[in-house]
Amino acid sequence: MAKNRRDRNSWGGFSEKTYEWSSEEEEPVKKAGPVQVLIVKDDHSFELDETALNRILLSEAVRDKEVVAVSVAGAFRKGKSFLMDFMLRYMYNQESVDWV
User: Is the pTM of this model over 0.70?
Assistant: First the structure.
């Protein structure tokens, strides 16, 4: 599990692509992808990365749009990536009857 900003992209995720962006970098990558806005601390508590969240929500591409934040937590190999992938497939294919 990623415990700090340096480990953010160690999750695996919704696709085979790697997204190299965090609040520590100057410019975000211009591709859609997950961004960790909650940091898991060593004492198992969470810390909000306000810088990363502000860069997302205040960017010109997103500023005037509706935004939904989804957080999924749980043990290893319990379906978190499946659930996120399922929701993304539904979101991108709402017009299609055969989206599943």
Answer: no
